[in-house]
Each structure stands twice: as structure tokens, then as C-alpha cells.
């Protein structure tokens, strides 16, 4: 499991006085960067053979300005050409959001998806957690 | 069904050269504004008794800079205190993304959810579509 | 002069209850798109030989959610290899912000700036306004 | 002088392959948070008696994805009811951007600006740098 910490930025709040929900989508993308590094160690964009197929987020509690948020990232499921990432966002000891992202291995040159390379799959397996039942 | 048109903004693109996926979360929030107006006709933030409980988005095709995107918004399901909104994003005659948002009726004064008021429920029903089977 | 209309999006507000100031930078970028089209008519990113050298914005009045904002774009000054764009943002008959952007003509292949091509300069001149004295 | 470190987020890049310029406006807002804490130690939004009157940013070099950016924040000038903040953004030993923000002391109850309270002014003076000549 990977852990990333973000501090809410003022422009990420909205008129309700809390962090806007749409911001969490971006935070979870940021929390997937350790996964991106598995596929593109140099972080060169051209090497990153992944596309995002699906996201889902459950918003559990309001996220407040002024307090750090811890984002966790694990692998829930590995398929032939895709895998599911599991995220949680915690603030002040409370879960504020949880979500999933389905990433597909994609060859930008042939413009088609393909099987996950073995060494990338092995690296993902190190971060596999038991599938959530909810 | 409501229809909203957005033109991708340059800062909404990312280094892959297309509109970044996280942007669609924000566009769908914007596409829900006609729904917000049902609950808060004046668009005063203090009157908007809705919280977002869940989102899900399937990314079907890349969204390109330089071409309008049409966002559709309909009601898929109405529960006791919540309802599910169905969204699609279309560009150049092709579906680029579809998604759902679950909104909960919430009283910010008592800090608890409650049944949808009858007249709001009636307005939502006008935009109800047959539930998708996928 | 070019005119662009934007409707504030809910996620663009902040905890003060108005549109966050940083959003205006993005709106003015969007308001410069007619200028970008002069240099890259097809709006292909690879053809857009402009870089942004400087921005300045004066925030005159709060921008409210729920009301359209009109953005104006004109050319204030044309130099040898750069030009200055003048922007204003108006809401409900009141000027809310004004700003400038200095764009430099840049050849991404040679990675250096160069003189503005004559036909682009001529197109810019059509939108030239008297230089503001403030 | 205050120092803040940010890691560019993937959604902050644009189709040119670098961090979009509009993002820097948000980073500099974030870099001003230590200043906000002088005025509102608890970081409660309702206590923050400051409005942003003006920003300016010079973009000196492209900001790349994958490398940390250090933001510096100092006070350049203190007036009667306003002060000027000086920012720089550095990446890999190179200055990428510099900017200013003019903040005005503002009483949200009376909706008018007023003189900076003495103890806030004293705190700002601790971070005063010699005014830049450029």
C-alpha cells in the first residue's frame, strides 16, 4: 500500500466551506503516481502505457480546510489487461472518501489495449489487498 | 433530460494531449446545475440542501481540445432521501464518458439527511429515464 | 475586440462564497482562444507557436456564482516578437477584473523566440485598442 | 521568508507537456498560507480579513512534471491597509516563475478596507525583503 499526504489548498474549497468533491478525483490521480512509476520509472509521459477506464468515489465525510489528508493506494484486482486501484482519503482519524480506479494497459502506438507485461504485473501484486466486500 | 454544452479549455488538457479525466467530474457537477435549481431556485448556496454521496464515471473515448462537448443529465432512480443522476458526455457524435452521481437530501441545520420534499420529488420525476441495464 | 461568456461553475467558488481569484487566470486563458486561433487556425496544439511570458490581474469586485461573466479580449501593444493582450471580466454590468497577458512568438523546434510573422501581426492589429493609461 | 514545496500533479500539466501556467496562480495562493496564518491563526475562513487586489506573474522557464517545485514567499512592501507579497518558483536549481500579490486588509462585516492591525504589521515586517529593482 502506498501513502500520499496532501494539504487542502484554499482554491480547492467551495462555497459550502469545505473541499469541493471534484477535487478528490484529482487527489486520487495524484495518489496513483507510485503506480504510474511502476510502468514509467522515469515519469516520462510518453512511456506511460496506461489509460483510465473508470473511477468511482464514495464521499463519506466532509473534508475540511486547514488539516492534512492522507491518501492510501492499493491494488484490489489484477485482470489480463487491466487492474483496479483502491483509494481512501483520511482526515483527522476519520475516513472521508473511498474510491476505485480501473486502469487499462494500452499501447499508444497501436492504439489498442493488451496484456499487462509480466514484470509490471509482479510489481502490482506486491500491493494487492484482499478484495473489499462492500 | 437536461443538456449543457461546454467547450474544453486549454488548461483542462494534460500532457497526453487530451482533456484530463479529472475534468469530467467537474463538468458533470456543472451538468447537474439544472437539478440544483430545482432545490434552490435562486441558486443561493445556503438554500441548496443536497450533498454528493457518490460518483462513478466510465471513460469511453478520449476528449479532444477544440471541439464542443454536450453533457446530458437525467434522473435514473429516486429513493426516499436520495436520487441518482445519470450523465453522458458526447463529442463529435461519439459518447466519450458516462457517469452517475448519487445526491442525498440533507438539512445543513440539523446536519442529517431526510426524505425528499414532495414538490422536489415531483420535479425530479419529470426527468426520470428508464434505468440502464449495464 | 473578442467577447467570451462563461458561467461560473460551482467548483470554481471557494469558502468565501465567491469565485476564487485563481479561476480568473484560467478564464482569461480561455478568453485568449480567438487569439490562439489566429496563430493555429486548426487549434492543433503543435501549431501554436506562442508562450505566455507574463500575466497581471487586478481584482476589482467579487464574482458571484449564478450569474454569467463576460470576458473581453483586445490587443494593447504589438512588439517585434511579443504582444500584450488586454482582458476585462464583467458581471451584472460591473467590471470585476481586468488584466494583461504578454505572449511571445516562439518556435518550439529551435526553442527560441522570433519576430511575429507578418500575416499574424496584421490580424492582431485589427484588434488593437488605444493603450490604457492606468 | 517562507518556503513551500509542491510536487506537480499530472492533471496540472497541459497539452504542451509541461505544467499549465494558470496552475502557478494557485500554487502562489498556497505559498501565501503562512501569511494567512498571521491574520487567522486557526485558519478559520471567517477570521481571514484579507482580500486579493492584484497578482502578477513572470513565467521564466517551463515547469516539468516529475520534479519538485520550491515556492518562496516574502513581503516586499507594507502600506497602510495593504501589503505586497513576493513569490518565486524554483525547479531543479532554476527559477521558473516570479510574482507578486497585493493583499488588502478588509473587514467583511463593514465591507470596507482598513489599516493593518499593529500586531499583524509587526509579524509581516519580520519577513520584509529589500524591494526588487526590476
Question: How would you describe the overall organization of this protein?
Answer:
4 copies of one chain form a homotetramer. By secondary structure, chain A is α+β, with helices and mostly antiparallel strands. Chain A has one domain (2-125): Roll (Thiol Ester Dehydrase, Chain A), CATH 3.10.129.10. The first copy, chain A, is built from 3 helices and 6 strands. In chain A, strands 1, 2, 3, 4, 5 and 6 form a 6-stranded antiparallel β-sheet that branches. In chain A, strand 5 (94-107) and strand 6 form a beta hairpin. The mean pLDDT of chain A is 93. Chains in contact: A-B, A-C, A-D, B-C, B-D, C-D. At the A-D interface, helix 1 of A face helix 1 of D.
Concise structural overview:
Four copies of one chain form a homotetramer. With 134 residues, chain A is an alpha+beta fold. Helix content of chain A is 19%, strand content 38%.
Question: What features would you highlight for this structure?
Answer:
homotetramer, 134 residues, Thiol Ester Dehydrase, Chain A, 6-stranded antiparallel sheet, 3 helices
DSSP, total strands of chain A = 6
Order of helices and strands of chain A: EHHEEEEEH
Q: What proportion of the residues of chain A form beta strands (DSSP E)?
A: 35-45%
**CATH top level label of chain A:** Alpha Beta
Main β-sheet description of chain A = 6 strands, antiparallel
Q: Could you give me the name of the CATH homologous superfamily of chain A?
A: Hotdog Thioesterase
Distance between the terminal alpha carbons of chain A, to the nearest Å? 19 Å
The rough form of chain A would be described as: elongated
Query: From the structure provided, what is the oligomeric state, counting identical versus distinct chains?
Result: homotetramer
Structural class of chain A: alpha+beta
Proper CATH architecture of chain A:
Roll
Amino acid at each position: 500500500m502506498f501513502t500520499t499526504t496532501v494539504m487542502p489548498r484554499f482554491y480547492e474549497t467551495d462555497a459550502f466551506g469545505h473541499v469541493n468533491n471534484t477535487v478528490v478525483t484529482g487527489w486520487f490521480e495524484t495518489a496513483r503516481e507510485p503506480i504510474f512509476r511502476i510502468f514509467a520509472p522515469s515519469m516520462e509521459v510518453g512511456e506511460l502505457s496506461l489509460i483510465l477506464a473508470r473511477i468511482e468515489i464514495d464521499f463519506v465525510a466532509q473534508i475540511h480546510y486547514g488539516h492534512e489528508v492522507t491518501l492510501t493506494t492499493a491494488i484490489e484486482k489484477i485482470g489480463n489487461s487491466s487492474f483496479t486501484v483502491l483509494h481512501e482519503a483520511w482526515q483527522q482519524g476519520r475516513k472521508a472518501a473511498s474510491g476505485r480506479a480501473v486502469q487499462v494497459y494500452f499501447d499508444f502506438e497501436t492504439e489498442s489495449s493488451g496484456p499487462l507485461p509480466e514484470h509490471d504485473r509482479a510489481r502490482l501484486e506486491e500491493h494487492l489487498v484482499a478484495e473489499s466486500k462492500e
